[in-house]
Amino acid sequence: MALLLATVVAGVITFVMYKLRGSASHPELTKVVAASHDLTAGVVLTAQDLRTVDWPASVALPGSFTKVDQVVDHPLLHAVGAKEPVLDRDLAAQGSGLGLSGRIPTGMRATSVRSNEIVGVAGFLYPGSHVDVLATLVVPGTTVPVTETILQDVEVLTAGERIEPDPQGKPQTVNVVTLLVSSEDSQRLLLASTQGTIQFVLRNSGDQSKVFVPATSLSQLAGSSRPGLPEQSERAPKVRAPTMRRSPDQTHSSLDPYVMEVIRGSTRTFEKF
User: Fold this and answer.
1) What is the pLDDT at residue 228?
2) What is the value of pTM for the model shown?
3) CA 204, 91, 59 angle in degrees (round to 5)?
4) Low-confidence residues of the chain, pLDDT below 50?
5) Which of 175, 183, 203, 233 is most buried (most C-beta within 10 Å)?
6) Per-residue pLDDT at 236
């Protein structure tokens, strides 16, 4: 009886484990649209570029498609590998055009700025990088240059002619950088580039904070005791601090008037009180 009972229990356990293992190895599947071969950014998708692949139904894939017709004729914003699911975030609107224009969101503008090895952060600017834009220019009415942060957290659309980063991450010197900015910021960027020099400051793409940064002047670099104040122009009149003295023609008394000597450039006046 004991042997029979043990055989029955072992059989039940074996059957249950087999069922569990079978269900785990054969999960419920669904169909999602994927690339039939490697696709580069900017191409308009056709039916030959797409196929459906099996995907576990228990694993959510937001933005996926189940029918090829839902994806055909859409420009591709990002490169997609073979058999990789095509998601809504990878697609531009139908009729938005090829290349860069399809990657510009509504209400934004793509503005190109001439760059060099220094301005381009020694070649480490890639499409998708985020930068701050600094401008060095002379404040109107003075001869003193200042450096000010004019734009923060700006996305780089293209570096040279590349709209996708280098797969190996190799730095490349480029002559033109295209930034994604608003209409107002595109005007500020153009004005700054014509009035002075600009510099890109690379930042962490996950850091989207924007903080107030006061302009930096030469007096701060020289260790001035009054940082933040613009230097006085050499042509501007120098006003000395007023001095107070008693009138020289009166004897000392508690009721004697005081005389304030005011010097404005080469003009000297006395005010009594």
Assistant:
1) 47
2) 0.53
3) 80
4) 225-239, 241, 244, 247, 250-252
5) 203
6) 45
